[in-house]
Structures are given as structure tokens and as C-alpha cells.
Amino acid sequence: MKGIKFIGFVLILLGFQTISRAQFITVDETLTPTQLVQNILINNPCANISNVSVTTWDFGNGKSFGKFTSGGSVFPFADGVVLTTGRAKAAIGPNSSIISDGPSNWSGDPDLEEALNIGQSSINATVLEFDFLPLSDKISFDYIFSSEQYLTSPSQNQCNYTDGFVFLLKKANTTDTYSNLAVVPGTNIPVRVNTVRGTGTLCPPANPQYFDAFNGTNHPTNYNGQTKVLTAQSTVVPGTLYHIKLVVADQGNNLYDSAIFLGGGSFKVEKNLGSDRLLSTNNPLCFGGTLDLFANEPGTNTYKWFRNGVAIPGATNPLYTVSQAGIYSVEINLGSSGCISTGKINIEYAAQLTPSPATIVQCDPDMDGITIFNLKNAETKIKATDTSIQTIKYYTDANADDLISNPTAFNSTETTVYAKAFNTYNCFVIVPVTLKISNETPAPPAPLSFCDTDGGKDGIRQFNLTNEVSPSVLNGLPAGLDVSYFSNVNDALSATNPLPNAFTNTDPSQEIIWAKITNGPDCYGIIPVTLIINYLEVPNFDDEQKIVCEGLNSIVLSVPLGFQSYLWNDSNASTSNSITVTTAGNYTVTVTDANGCSDTKTFIVKASGVATITGVNIVDFNGGENTVTIEFTGPGIYEFSLDGFSYQSDPTFYNVPSGTYTVYVQDTQFCGKRTQEIFVLDYPKYFTPNGDGFNDIWKIDYLQKQNRRAQVHVFDRYGKLVFSGTGDTAGWDGTLNSYPLPASDYWFTIILENKRVIKGHFSLKR
Question: pLDDT for 430-451, tens place per residue?
Fold first, then answer.
């Protein structure tokens, strides 16, 4: 049973391999270079081939060029010529290995290096070149560029690896410079790995629309990627011998081979009928236009023209004139050579232009029959029936010969000019534009007076022209008119530089602007509008500060008489020139003159009043360095004194001697003062009880005034109590039990009624 399954597996595997081989190209290296060019690449009698040669490397058992066939695969070309930088047969799929066949001593090609501007860095060059004599004026061939350097997972430094290919053309036997036809379509960029590459790798894409794919394993060729089918083409001079040189080479080193696949029979000699005329390329024929197609070639030839693949009856001349859209082609039987040259061109037409005639009605402010027309005002009407119109030019004549150079300021009488309307393809139609002068004569409004209300008293203000000016301008005119404003009459005529709706005058106090009244696109009238800007600036009307004594008085706030009206912001909204207030606050009065302009003054009324003394903080018994701090409340700003004459702003007094004082707290705005008597206590530092009647008793002055029950104790230096008394006691006379004590230092303790204890010492001197 196992043997039967194994045989079946082998048969299935062999069948799979047969199918797989059919998916890959084949390569034949047996054909000569002349056979490859004459029978495979060209395969038609329209070019005489000569001087065919190949430059390659002798692998011994293989070549770097040959014929390929699709081999039943999906490869785009059925057959053709392949040129590689390694072994031609290595190009056969699958894509299962990296091809790096050429040796390092296989040289490059200087013409390729010059065309690609790569210095002397090419290597492993395969060159196929030949001369040919074209029988028509255009050649082309199809090709695919394939390379192992199209890596799906490259490193960053591999992004600039790029082999090269060139299709070089020049007139034979000349020193002319080669032209490279293997370029990215529509550019002069040579086709290489880094100029045609798709997305999907860390390398940047380049012209990805021309890249085919990064290949997996099961691909017809053994290359990692390739371009789409591209076409190289050039115009040539029939009957002139040309030299073609096809080169593919590695760059930098001999690794990662590349190949060029040239489509079999794709080398064509054609007739150049010119570029396609297409909407997509912005060069179609204009509606109603014609195009002469010239297919004339030297010699005795026959011609046959086709439209959309159908022969055109009677069209057998070298010249055919196109008058309708279609794909036009020609077959040219070039005499006895058997060469049939073909040419093709695609013709599209732009849609018919349908602009509308227009009329411009302009005003004539000075009534002289000549005015300035802005011809661009006709464009909306001209384009109304055809949105494809892009640009319009104006002429004085119907043949559009005399261009009007300044259409926004065309000075003219009533007349007709002509608009040349172009679409995006430069097709045009000419339509008349009738110029008429309005016969309406609206009257200017009386000067319009306004007040300068923007905060600056300078005669400059911002206007809302729509709300503040237009009602006067349009008053009495027919409904439906519009108005716009300009700084001068010429701008109004040409409708250029309109003033903004939020307009600020530049001439202080008075300015004239111009109102252009329009009826749709037509001018109805242009009139001057005088703007007068008044303002009221009362002399000495600055804000003022006042003081009111709370509970004691009222004050009168007043401004001069002579204004049209007054308005205060008090609770009564008073309208006189003065008010009486008793409380603090900001009182504003607005005065208005006969022009309706106003000025404003603010009285800043601040409250003040007599203070309340809430206490006096006395720090005494400091040997003359006593302090007195007055504690108070009140709405005003106050100053302070201990004698009623000298005042200070600080409520604290320093270095106050002992004594009795009256403290004064006085309002700086003269709303009153408060007083309070205080006593500052201190002890004598010595006394002299010698009976001379001076300083014979040691006592605390004023102690009896505030601390009658205070306890006073005196001790000698040994701590023996020598005197005790109270605040009412007369003091110590320096004796103990009526005996005089010796001169010495003595210590004391005073216990005040608030339990404060003061200790110190003094001297008894004899």
C-alpha cells in the first residue's frame, strides 16, 4: 500500500515539475547577432540593417545574449532579444537565486558611462550595435528592464545600487553625440533601478507608474523585479544611415546582474504624424477647426488613410485634413521594398464655446460724453452661458487686431468693443461688448455729520458705511439699487480699490468719498459724499478726585453751564450741571453739545472720616527707649502726634521718655481728630538721698496714675528686702528702719496690676 502511494506521489511531483517549467521563459544562445537583429528584433523590410556586432564575455559554455521566448509563461513578450550582464540562460525562471555571473575583469562601456554620467564605473557590459537605413521618419521599439537589484528587503545602503541600460542613437559615421532613447517617458531621466522603482520597500519609490513588480519565486525570469513594457522612440531622416548601440552593464561591481528584454518585431519604422491632440494633454483641436496631416515620404509610394480603423473613402493622398474627432492612421506602401510604414494620431475636439454678448452701462460724472469703462465688468455676462471660458481679452475691432492694453480703465464714448473669450485649450470666440453711458443724475446728499466716538478727539473715526451712510445716499432713489464707495471718482468709474465697509477717514474733521450706485452690473450714478466729523473736547475736563467726610457733610459736584444736555450716572440720572453727594463712589457726567457730540468727566469721590482709637500699645520701662503705638480704625488717611503740633504718618513713636501724654489721631482730609491721655512709665537709674531736696526719693513716676495697687520691692546686693510699697507709696528714701543705707547698687521688682513683672537695678549715691 505504501508503495502505491509513493508511486502516485512521484507521478504527481513529475507532473507539477512539467507544469512549472512551462511557466518560465526559454533562452536560445545559438543565433548570430545578425539573425537576432534582422529576424527577431526588426523582422520587417522597413529598415536596411548592416554592420551588426556584439561585445560580450566568452563564458566558454554560454553567452550573455540570445533569443528568448515566453515559453508559455505570462511574460509580456512572446519572443525577442535578451542582453544581460551575466549568462543569458541564467535569466530563465524561477526567481530562486541571485545571479552574479560576470567576472570582475569583464569591462564596461564608455558610451554608456557618458550617457548615464557615472564616470568609469561600469563593468560586465553586453553591447549590441548595428547600422540601419530607415525608410520613414520615426523609429521605436519596446523593452523591459529587469534586475536583481530590485530587492524586496534591502538595507539602506543598497537603495543606490543601480545597473544601467542605454539605447544610443546617432547618425552613422559621424562624430555626433549619442542620444539615449531609454528614458522615463516624458523626461530625460535614464531608465535605471533607482529611477523606476515601486513602493513597498524602505527605498524611496521613483516613477512607480512605470514599475511592474517585485517578483516572488514563481516568476518567468530569475530577476527580482522589472519595469513595465516601455517604448524607446525617436524621429529620423528617411534615407539617412543611423547607428544604434544597445548596452546593458553592471555598475560599481559585477554582482546582482541585470538584463534588457527587447520585444521581438517591436522595432518599427513609422511615419510621425505629430503628437496626439487630446483633452487630457490640453492640446485638442478647437471646435470647427481642422488639422493637416502630412504623410509624404520620398519615392513612389501609395497611401491609405483610416479613421477609427475604417478606411476613409478616397483618402489616398499624402495629405489628409482632419475635421472631426477620431483615431487617424495611415499606411504607406514604400514602393518595391515591400515596407509598409504606418503612422497614427489621436484627435479630440474641445467643446464649442458659447459666450454671451454683453452691455456695460457706465456713469459720466462730468457729463462730457466720455467716461472710463472697466471692461472686465462684462466678464460675468460673457461667462454666464459657458463656464469653460478661462480668460478674456478686449479689442477695439471685430477682427481682434487692436488689443486694449488697459481694459480696467478704458476711456471712451458710447461704442462697441469686442471680447475674445478663451477656454483652457486656447480656443476662442469673439463677441461684442456694447458700451453705454447712464443718463441718470442722482443728487448728492447734504453733508453728513458724525461725532468722533472712538475715544480719540482728533476728527478721525471709523464708519459703518452700509449703516451710517448708505441710507442717505439711496434716499429717494428706486428700490433695488446697490452702492459701493471709493476714495476718488476714477476708482469709482473703474470699480477698483473699493473702500471697506469699516472705513476710517484719513482727513481729520472732513473727508469726501465717492458713492457708486449700481443697478446690477450697470452704473446708475456716481456722486460725492461729504463726511463731517465733529467732536466735543471740554477744557479742564479731566477726571477729578473729591473727598466726603462720612456722617459729617456732603459735597457738590459740578461742571460748567452752556451745554445742550447733561446726564449723571447717579441713582436719579440727574440732568443738571451739578449734583450733591454724601457717599463715596465714581460719579460720571456726560455733556452733549448742539452737534450731538459728547464729552465725559468722572468725579472719583472717596470717603474719609474721624478715626476711632481702639487702643494704645505702650512698651515702657526700657530706660528711655520706650515705644508708643496707636491702634485705630477709620475710613480715612490719618496722621499721629503726641503733642498736638508735630504729626507723623507712622502710628508708632520711638524713644519716648516717661511721662504723661495726649495722643492725637487726625484725618488728613480735615474730617476731625481723636485724642487719648496715656502714661509712659520708667524707673530712675539712680538717686541721691542727701537731703538737698533734689532727687532724694527713688520712685516710679506716674505709677499711681495707672497702677495704684502695683507692688514695688527693693533689695540690696545680697537679696535682702530693704523696701516694699505700692503705686500710691511716695517712694524709697534710701533708709532701712530709719537708718541710711550705704551707696551701692540695688535691685527692684515691680509687679503691675496686670501681673506684668519688671526687674532692674539702680544706684544709690551719697
Answer: 999 999 999 888 999 999 999 9
